[in-house]
Design goal:
Blueprint: E1 10-14, E2 17-20, E3 24-25, E4 31-32, E5 46-50, E6 53-57, E7 62-64, E8 70-72, H1 74-79, E9 85-88, E10 91-94, E11 101-103, E12 110-112, H2 115-118, E13 127-132, E14 135-140, E15 144-149, E16 152-157, H3 160-163, E17 172-177, E18 180-185
Antiparallel strand pairs: 1-2, 3-4, 5-6, 7-8, 9-10, 11-12, 13-14, 15-16, 17-18
Amino acid sequence: ATCGHGCKYGECMGPNKCKCFPGFTGKTCNQDLNECGLKPRPCEHRCMNTHGSYKCYCLNGYMLMPDGTCASSMTCAMANCQYGCEEVKGQVQCLCPSGGLQLGPNGRTCIDIDECSTGKAVCSHNRRCINTFGSFYCKCQLGYELKYTSGRYSCVDVNECVTNTHRCNLHAECLNSQGSFQCKCKQGYRGSGFDCA
């Protein structure tokens, strides 16, 4: 079985046929599956989609049970939590549905942790970190695109001179560089390369 286009979050099962790991979809298994949009819904009350998975949480006044259901709780109702709560040794604690969220100063609402600025997120070579509410993902740096080459996905330089996405002047030549490009006015012309006279 060979998959010329690769299977990012899955395995190759036949000629260009991918079997995606749970939580992923698409021809090359490169798209996150939004489990919260599935029928029947995976969560009793509320659902938060995460990369490759999902998290359930409960309405205020309900407690998240180990099986993912929500049970009515007087103590949770009094705690007034944004995303439901849990009881630990008789103590009521508000919950956040993702590791990328933390309890705010009031102990009831959840605030986002910016993994990109705190350095918690590590993106591989030529990738930049994009923060999302409750998580983050890595995206190719500007001037690079995701390609499947020699058995793996990597961010490769976009040759703006070939793809014609440069803005060089008609009287300038385009010179590709890693992640960028330069414009140089042709012989007999002067200027920035974007303007040549």
